[in-house]
Each structure stands twice: as C-alpha cells, then as structure tokens.
Queue: 3 jobs
Job 1
Amino acid sequence: MIDVNYKRMYKELNEKNEEFEKILMALKGSQELSTKDIISMDDLSVDDIKLIFRITYPFKEEFIKRPNKKIPLLKGKFQMDFFFEESTRTRTSFELAGKHLSADVINASGSSTSMAKKGETLMDTVRTYNSMAMDIITMRHGCSGAAQMIANEIRCPIVNAGDGCHEHPTQGLLDMYTIYEAKGKIEGLDIVIVGDILHSRVAGSLIRGLRKMGARVRLAGPPTFIPYGIDKVFGVKVYDNLDEAIKDVDVVYALRVQLERAASGFIPSVREYSKNFCITPSRLKMAKPDAIVMHPGPINREVDLRTEVMECAQSKVEEQVTNGFCVRLALLYLLVRGDPGKVHRKDASLMEIIRCGNLKDKRKVSEAKTRGGRR
Ligand code: CP
C-alpha cells in the first residue's frame, strides 16, 4: 500500500536530518488529491488514498513523537471546525492537527451561532464564514447530505466530519490506515463489521473504502440493522449469526449501537443484542489467532465489546485514535498546502474550451485555462 520505496526514501531523508517539510514534499512528489472536498469515500481514488497514507506515515513515525510539535506548514491559514453534534475524537484531532500545523483554528457549534435563535440558515451561516476567507472548513452535522450541500456553494475545501447516517470519511481513512499498519496490506483481507450498519456513517465510509482497496467484507447484525440489498450494492456478505461471520477473519470491527438515533426501536432489547452480537473473548477466538479488534468509539462497553476484548493485546482501539490524529494532519497538509482537485479543474477548463468551439480564439482559451487553474 505505502510503496516500500517511500518508506526507504523517508528513512534516508530522516537519517540525513532533512527538514520535515522537505520530507513531506519528497513523499508527495507532484501528486495532488483529485478532489478539494472530502464528503464521501467515493470522492477518493485508490491513488488519493495511497497518497494520504504516504503523508500520514512521517507524521506518525516522527512528527507526533517530537517534544515540540509546532511546525509552520499552515501559518497564515484559517481553519474552521463547525460541529453541530457532540464529538470527542474527531473535533479534538482536527483542532489539534490544525494548531500543530500553525493554522489559526476557529471553533463554532450550532448553538453558538446566529442559527440557534435568530433563524439564520445553515447555508447563510457557512456563506458568512466563507466571506471571511476560510482556507478549510470541517463540518459535522446530524443531517445526511449537509456537508455536500455546503461544498456545492463554497470554494474552500470542505471535509465531512460525519453527516447523519451517511458517511464519516476521515474515520474510514484512519481505520484503513490502522488495518494497513497492523497487517501490511488491505487487499485480500477478510474483515467483519458487526452491528448497527443501518445507522452507522462509520460503516458507510469503511465499507466503501475497504471494497475500493480490495478487502473481502462481511457484515453481521440483526436483519433490522442491515440495509436491504447492501450485499449486491457493495459486493459484501451478510450474516445474522456472528459466530459464523467471525470465523477466520483478519479484522473484527465492532460498531456502536446508536441509541441516540433511535436504533433501540430496531432491536427487541439492548440485552438481547449484546447476547448475540457483543464481541466476547470466546467469539474473538473464532477469528484468526492474529486478528485485530477495532471500534470507532465511543464504546458501549458490554454491548458492542466486552471490556476484556477492548483491553486485550489484539485491540487497536487506542491506535485508531492516534492514527486519526495523524491522518487528519496529512489531510490538512494536502488540502490546504496542496492544490487539490487540480486534475478535475483542468478537465473542466478543457470541456469549457470544447464547448466554446473556438480553439483558435487564443483569448478565450487563455481565459478558460485561467478559470480552470484558480481555486
Ligand atoms: N469516532 C468518532 O467519530 O468519535 P467522536 O464522535 O468522538 O468524534
């Protein structure tokens, strides 16, 4: 996944005591992310995901181990974290990542804005922030599609930090990075995702990402938690019996039962769910002996996972949090310092030239190219 040449390149540059920014530039080369907005895992190509992992690697290997983690990569840039729902991991890691890269980070929540009591719409609120020349906006919202709606209107990069029951792409990236780190690959692995697939934006991104990277995915849960037809849409296998689903897998990924999203109405009781789908030490023994256990957090102990499993040597739950921080450092660097979406803008300008039907008109061609190259 991360080509061994890049690991070697990183090692050599690091041994030469090369500046961290030069190491990042060497690892990035001339590649840019193909999209300026990360709303869904579908926005990212396999090459985009590999680029993100390549840049995550030095942040994890070296940067976060430094006693002084401040680096001026995003000095003079403005980052807005706009969270309408509670968050511990995502919000803190985005804020910390922006601050470590020296961006000025502004936090807003639904209740702290004029939306709360003055009737301003979400779109007008975000347009207002955009008028203050933000360089990147991260947003969590309870409604599926909210991040896409603002991305359609706003020129700076938008990162979906979780929208309703739809997607949480940076969670999917950190999960895949954790799997890659533990197993050295993603392609060909057998991975079971257990629980409330229907309400889970984490599952929405992870299933798309894992299938894109060539893993075999099994979904296990009560039938009411599994969207109808998902097996055909994503090429996954569906099980209503966890003991069958977990057999010989490389990765056991437990989801949180989302009681706040009315998930309790889909199961007879939390106790019955836990009896059939909680990851217990005896169930974990049915997976491969070196299987890893993951959970996006926050965890419902004894419902999603037994505490012994959460704290066992196979558990990667804490590693996921560290990797979330490192993946978000890499993403901020690539989105704000890089020129994401350049390829598509070039295509767009070419289309415009073709539509003009006037390739000989040098002025029009030059204007279209300028529009295509502008952020
Ligand atoms: N996994 C996750 O999104 O956690 P938070 O809700 O704490 O951000």
Job 2
Amino acid sequence: PVVPSGGVVARIIDEVYELCRADTSGTLADYIPELSAVQPDSFGICLATADGSIYGSGDLDAAFTIQSISKPFTYALALADRGVAEVARHIDVEPTGEPFNEISLDPQTQRPRNPMINAGAIAAAGLIKGTDAADRFARIRRSYSRFAGRELTMNDAVYASEARTGFRNRAIGYLLRGANIIDVDPDEAVDRYFRQCSIDVTCRDLAVMAATLANNGVNPLTRERALTGPLVEQVLSVMTTCGMYDAAGDWVTTVGLPAKSGVGGGILAVLPGQIGIAVYSPRLDAHGSSVRGVKACRELSSRLGLHFLHVT
Ligand code: GLN
C-alpha cells in the first residue's frame, strides 16, 4: 500500500468519523459496573505515522481501559524475556475461531492455542520476569509506556472490579497451572492479567503504540526502542491470525491489517512500516469489539487503500 499525503489522510479521517458517528448500535460491556458507566457516545479516530505525524478526529484524549489490547504487548514482553522458542513451548500461535474467553487448550500439549485469547494471555503474564509480583507488573506497565511514549497508569476501580468478578479467568489460570504451562502461583498470573487489562489509555496513546509496532519497535515520538524488529514481526503475525478472535477471517478480508480489540472499546491496527491506527468507541458487537471501531477501520482501509495485500 501507498498511504496518501497528510492532507488527504486528515480529510478522510474526518469523513469516516462523520459517517460512523451515526451508528449507535451495539452495547456497552456490562460484566463490571465501571465499563457500563462510560460515555456511550464517545468516539475517536487517530492515525499515527511511523515517522511521528498524528492525525485524528473526535475524542482523542478520553481515558479508557486497554483490556485485551494489552495481550500483544504482554506477549511481546514475554518474548523479550524468554525468547521465541521458550514462549512457544508454553503458548501456541494457531487461531481458534472461538470467543476470547474460551477455555481452549490443545488436547495434546495443553498449550493455549494463541496469546490473543485469555488462556494464552494469562500464560504470557505468567512468563514475565521480575523479582516479585509487584516488579513483574511494573515491568509490564513500563513496557506499555515505552510503546505509548508516556507514563501509563492503572485504573484502580476497574482493577478491583476485574479481580472481584474474574472467576472464569481464575479457572483458566488454575487449568494452566495444573498442566504446568505456568509454574508461578496461578492467582499471581491471573492478578497480573487483571492489572494489565486495567491500564488506562487514550485513543492517541493506542495510535502511538500501533505506530511503534509499525516503526519496527521504535517509538516514533520518543525514538526509544520498545521491542526488537524480529519480535515485532512475531507479534504482528499473531495479531493478523488471532487478534480479532472469531471474527479474524472477516477482519482480514475487509480490513487486512494486524489488529487487536478490547472490551473497553478500543481497536488498534498496524500497517507495518507505515502507520498505526486506533479507534475508540465503547459500544460493542457480539464478538466484544467496538462497532464503530470495526466500521471505521473498514472505511479507512478501503478509502486509504491500506489492506496489506492491496497492490497499487
Ligand atoms: N478483562 C477482560 C476479560 O478478561 C478483557 C476481555 C477483552 O477485552 N476481550 O474478560
């Protein structure tokens, strides 16, 4: 793909914003009170280029929790800590075609099918190195902050609710411990997953995080390296096949970009070497992805010609 000039990008973002704003379908996540208490009409689209230009429309600086968009970033840190081969012994890279919270372990190896579903994400959280639980989470938070180019913080109220209600995730943690996929205390691994899901971000932050992946792991604003090039490739590969859960095939055909969504209402997408895109709008579809987010990404991809298989 050849991304159009800045002026065209800015105009198309405004058009897509106006078009998608009319869509008020979908429902807020309601498994904890904090997620159903957000402004349902919030909507932001942000695009950051691999050389650091930022374009956007709408609510670019409203905070919301990163939720499952944390998964590729913790997987990235696990890869950096343990190496690709060791992580692969614990977490596979095969798409499931199943929902995000599926209790999906390979019957032969007991490995979670991939790091983008909860089972794989909890396993990745269990592989993070550090001196103690606090240090291991601090390393995750600092790693996300390098991608975002600013100090990110955890939302205490969301974390408390996640921890109070997350029985299914605890069950997954205990299965992983029973199968020796994680060798730490399963409660610690699951608690770390709840904490990482509760990190607050803005639409602008997610666009910069995406642009850091697009820029081969170097944050285009701070010039700080957040991840090595080969690991960026590994993470984007898994996002391509598994990032949108049971909608992955539809996403690849209609948008054609590695991406990740979260039930906080964010979606992040990457065109390697070129741009990062983020959309925030909290009303979700049946897969747990932002309705306007999916629609805006489809429109941006087709109007800007971003599909990674698109030949100009
Ligand atoms: N905290 C949520 C969970 O684990 C995140 C899910 C998501 O964003 N898809 O259920």
Job 3
Amino acid sequence: MSEFHPNIIVLENKSLLNLFTRVRDQTTPPAAFEFYAKRLMTILAEETIADLPLATSKTTVFTPCAEFKGEEVDVDKICAVSIVRAGDSLLGCVRALLPGVSVGKILIQRDETVPEKPAKLFYCKLPKGIEDKQVILCDPMLATGGSAAKAIESLIAVGVPVSSIIFSNVVCCPEGLKYLGGLYPEVKIVTASIDEGLNEEKYIVPGLGDYGDRFFNTV
Ligand code: PRP
Ligand code: URA
Ligand code: MG
C-alpha cells in the first residue's frame, strides 16, 4: 500500500536492487539494458499474474508424496494490453509467461518537446471479448499518468469494468499515482518502484531516462 494510491502493490523482491542498479545506470549499454530490464520485467510480470483473482481458481494436485492445495491461472481469462511503444517490452515478458494470451495494443505518445501537452491516442486494437477478461495493462513508466489514463479510457469505452484492469508498471512516481488514483481508484497498480517525482521535462527522478529509447536502442 502507499500514501499516494489506494490500490497498489509495490514489489519488495530482494533481486530487484541489482537489476534496478543496472537499468538506472546511464552507462549501461543497450544490449545490457535489455537483458537486465527483461529479468526485472519477468519478476514484475509474474507478480502481476499472481494478482489476477478473476483468472485464478483453487485446485488440488497430488505430489508423489501427498495432496497439495494450490491455485491455477486460466490464460483464457486474461488479456494483455500494451501502451505502445515502451509497453511492448513488458508485453513480451507477459507473453513469454502466458503463451497464447490474448493481446491488445494501444498507441499513445507524449510530445516530448512540449511536456505540458496531453498524451495523444493514435491507435487502439483490442480483441473481441476483452470485456469479459482480466486485463493486464502494460507500461513500464507512469510519469504524469496522462498515457495510462487515456489507455484506461479506451478500455472502459469497449466495456471493460475498471475493477478488471490491473496496471503493471516498472517505475512510477507520486504525481502519476495521485492522478490515476483520483480518476480510477479501482484500477490496481503493481509496480516495482515508487520514485521521488517528476522533473521539469516530466521525466521521472531518479527514474532511468526514456525507457522505450533505451530498451529498443532508438538513440
Ligand atoms: C512513455 C512511457 C509511458 C509514458 C508515461 O511513453 O512509456 O507510456 O511515457 O508518461 P506519462 O505518464 O506522463 O503519460 P512515450 O509517450 O514517451 O512513448 P514511447 O513508449 O514510444 O517511449
Ligand atoms: N517515459 C519514460 O520513458 N521515462 C520517464 O521518465 C517518463 C516517461
Ligand atoms: Mg508511451
């Protein structure tokens, strides 16, 4: 839980510190950034998948020695939606863990030259039946919250209940959490870090710079 958002899980896995140190370091070259970011996002994706009550059911299995009461995840009850472009990196990790999962894409871009301008929606392709699934919204960065809010609007517009959306995120900050929490408190957030805040260019501090540029080596 956090003072900035009513419905948030902040990961505390010990393995994150080393991985975050690598991806935050501005001298980490693109191939290494991708390598460490994928390891980090795989942990995030696993923890997000573990938090999908509508797609999870109790089950009993038998070990060679005894009964075990567990849980299983039904991939058919899940849809993973990325906010293109950076969100595609996290989507890749979710898909690796949930082969065959239904996928949607929403292209939303900020105008980096005018930080105050609202993020713009360019494209939205969502699968039929998404309104009956639990939606993992994938975007590694939550800064002002403008992009995530637009993506959530697009999901609501096709009938997805807000309570079925879980936002999976690598780094967020108080500004974005307060903005999203005010608009959509029912959308649960699973994040790997709450950073200090935003700078004048609306980049997260300390953050890691432009996630999409670094992950896809668009520099
Ligand atoms: C980045 C990031 C988020 C958004 C977060 O995307 O991936 O989608 O900014 O910022 P916000 O919370 O202030 O909206 P960007 O628009 O830079 O596009 P990219 O994914 O192509 O890098
Ligand atoms: N998008 C990024 O990639 N990084 C930030 O710090 C903010 C938005
Ligand atoms: Mg984006």
